[in-house]
Structures are given as structure tokens and as C-alpha cells.
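Hi Prof. W.,

I finally got the Sialate O-acetylesterase domain-containing protein prediction working! I wasn't sure whether to trim anything, so I left the full sequence exactly as given:
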Amino acid sequence: MYFLGGMSARHEIFPWPELSAMKKMVVGEKAAAPSRYTFDDKQRLIGDESKTLVTCPAQTDRTAVLLILGQSNAANHGGQRYRSNYGARVVNAFDKRCFIAASPLLGSTDTRGEYWTLLGNKLIESGQNDSVILAPLAYSGSQVARWAPGGDLNPMLVDTVTQLHDSGYRVTSVLWVQGEADLVHGTTGEAYQERFLSMVDTLRQNGVEAPVYISIASKCLEPSNGGFKEHIPDNAIVRAQLALSRSGQGIREGVNSDALLDGDDRYDDCHFGGTAGEKVSQAWLNLLRGESLLESSPQSSLLGPPAKAGRVLSTRITPKEYSLFPAVQQDGTGK
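And this is what came out:
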């Protein structure tokens, strides 16, 4: 028998665990609060009651169709949310449907912010495009091996590309933001290149002829993120990413977020905060605008030969090479 009483340093008079268990037996477990979000078995966001369904815009030569791939810094783990400033001219394409773009985007993990919608706004505001189709497929903590043939994300990549094709869309750019997980897990540079090229082969075999932009991304600090205490810029993953970007196989250098962002731009020493979203989206805008001008030149060549899995390239980073993306250097703002 238990008696009412208090608590001393040696004895807890109230039997809290027993009382809690008895309450659960009598009252039952508390039902989970309803949520506007729906996830698949891999924790990818596949439904959001707040989304506005619209007719998918027809693709023209003034439409950007961006296939967005990678891990958390390509997904909905950002510190700032954005929404389309141009209504149905910036849309989130998912499952053969289109929604006015607004954070978080369907197709990626988590429910926080992202900067791709901001990029879409900037592409239209700058006059680069009349409409922007955002097609994200990004998984927190994913290593490159999961995207290569045999990995669990490779079939989902094929499915996403197929859905875009069935919707009448031709991908104009593939934006890859990934590498932090592979650095933490010790993936070698050679293995990273082989697996990335295998993923590119998957894209090519499924009708994606667009340039693949590989970001220079490896920085994720602190144990809470599974990362390190300090970042070493010249590492195996960055060397592999730079080598791939110079392969001339339709693979191009994307935004160098490792160099572009400082400590204040990452809200937890890993993930992009609001200032990071501004800087990175502007860098992507500068890159895509610059490439568009280059491709319109008579001397330009859009793509080299298809990437071949297994080809490993080598490079070393010099202090001069490890700098901000050139387009960002030109205006000097980093925003």
C-alpha cells in the first residue's frame, strides 16, 4: 500500500512510474496531434495540406526545369522559408502534379526551409526565365552510394525523371548538393567519383541530357550533425568533386558552398540558414545565367560525351583554386 507523502534525498514516496502505467491502462495512450504533412517510408515529404495545386506550365525555351538532388542542404533543412513571388510561374513538380512553390518542397526530407524557391524567384526577376519548374529529390544524410545503381535511391531517381518526362518536361539542369555524409563516413575520392559517374549514367540512360552541376560541398561540423569539430578544406571529397567538374562529360562545377559560406551562415554549423540561402541562391543564379550566355555563343558546346561509370580522375587543390565560385567573385557581394 502506498501513502501520500513527499520526497527525500533517499526515498521517492510517490510511485510515479506505476501511476503513469495505470493511467495509460485506464485512459489510454494520447493520440498523436494531427499534422498537415504526409511522409513516405523514407521520411520524404509527399503531402502538405497547405499546397496550392495548379496546372503545370507548358515548357518553352524560356523555362528552367531544375532536377535538384543531394542530401540535407538540398532538402527542406534550411533555416528560412520562401514562397513564389510569381504565383504559378514558379512551381514544385511532384508526382505528375504542380504546386505553387513554397517551403517546404514536396519530394525531399523534412519540413523546414529551402532556397530553391528563392532561386526560382531570382531567375524570373533577372529576366533569365519566364517560368521555373523545381523538381527536388533530396535525402538527409544520404551518401553517394545510395544514388548509384544498386542503391536504394536510384530507383526513386529513375521514377522522378520518368514522372517529369510523362508531364512533358525536359530537364534543363541537374543541381547536385551532396558530399558531407561521404566525408564523415570516410568514402575515398576514387569511390566517390565512380559512384557519382554511375548515377550520371542512370540519368543519361533515362533521357536526361542536361548538364549536371556538382557542388563543392563537404562541410558539416559538430557531433550533433554527425560531423567533425573542425573542417579541412582540402579533403578527398572536395578533390573528387573538382575532378568530376573538370571531366568534360557534361558535368560542371556548381556552387562552392564550403568556401562561399562563413560560420554565421549555418545555423547549426552544418545546415544553411537564411543568409546562406541568399548567398547560395545568388551564386546559382550567377552560374546558370553565365552558362546560358556561354551556350548561346556559336563556339560553345553544350555537352561532351556521356559520362562513363568507373572513370576516375585526379586533381589537387591549390590555394588559388579553392576560392569562391567565379561568378560570385565578380560582383564581390556573395549574395
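Residues 149 and 198 are 7 Å apart (CA to CA). Does that look reasonable to you?

Thanks,
D.
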